[in-house]
């Protein structure tokens, strides 16, 4: 039996949360406005919340006409609805660190993803290696987290530094922030993949959502062991 909703232009995986513990998330970028609106409306027929990534300001304005209480963050580009009449306190702890202020949009995508899925998030921004004393001053705070997300562009060294400072997993997110030789994030990606620090895993360039998702999975395992 097909556990999805047929919409011709989309097949909504309404059974995903039962299988994986996470509902289907909408990738908004590139979707025609009419399709995006219908997808959000259809999801809300089956669930009390919906989470979308990479949405534009224009998409937000169009969807808001059909769903007035939709929320949009122009920094993270998250477009979400939450009709639940209660707010659960975040569980566990995930630390989201950014190398610079320019990396915050990707960091916020990661942070908001983790928070939407029930994790407590500690944001620690602008602690890049050009001023190493900044991250060292936050070492104890970062080390308390069940998982650390390191978001950095340029050469991407932040993940290696964090990997040498904490005992729990580090998820490295290369960003496309940087000058020409950064090659749209490839230099940061290669640095992170080739790190000699242990306990580091790497997601795709600018993939804050992917990092937030995996960090939530790790955080859930850690919270379960503590309960």
State the low-pLDDT regions, or none. Answer: none
The number of helical segments is: 9
Order of strands, widest sheet:
8-7-9-10-11
Question: What class do helices, strands and sheet pairing give?
Answer: alpha/beta
What is the string of helix and strand elements? Answer: EEHEHEHEEEHEHHEHEHEH
Distance between the termini: 36 Å
Question: Can you describe this structure?
Answer:
By secondary structure, the protein is an alpha/beta fold. The chain contains 9 helices and 11 strands. α2 crosses α3 (about 55-65) and α4 packs across α9. The model has no long low-confidence stretch (mean pLDDT about 90).
Looking at this protein, list some descriptive labels:
single chain; 227 residues; alpha/beta; five-stranded parallel β-sheet; four-stranded mixed β-sheet; 11 strands; 21% strand
């Amino acid at each position: 039996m097909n556990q999805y909703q047929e919409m011709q232009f989309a097949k909504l995986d309404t059974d995903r949360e039962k299988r994986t513990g996470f509902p289907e998330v909408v990738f908004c970028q590139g979707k025609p406005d009419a399709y995006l609106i219908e997808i959000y409306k259809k999801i809300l027929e089956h669930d009390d919340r919906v989470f979308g990534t990479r949405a534009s300001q224009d998409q937000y304005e169009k969807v808001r006409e059909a769903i007035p209480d939709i929320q949009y963050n122009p920094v993270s580009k998250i477009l979400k609805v939450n009709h639940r009449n209660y707010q659960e306190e975040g569980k566990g702890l995930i630390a989201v660190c950014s190398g610079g202020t320019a990396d915050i949009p990707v960091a916020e995508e990661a942070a908001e993803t983790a928070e939407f899925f029930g994790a407590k998030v500690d944001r620690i921004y602008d602690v890049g290696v050009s001023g190493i004393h900044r991250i060292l001053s936050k070492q104890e705070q970062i080390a308390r987290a069940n998982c650390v997300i390191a978001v950095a562009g340029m050469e991407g060294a932040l993940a290696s530094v964090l990997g040498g400072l904490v005992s729990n997993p580090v998820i490295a997110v290369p960003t496309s922030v940087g000058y020409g030789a950064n090659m749209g994030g490839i230099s940061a990606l290669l640095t992170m993949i080739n790190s000699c620090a242990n306990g580091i895993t790497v997601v795709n360039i600018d993939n804050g959502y992917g990092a937030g998702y995996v960090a939530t999975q790790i955080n859930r395992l850690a919270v379960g062991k503590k309960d």
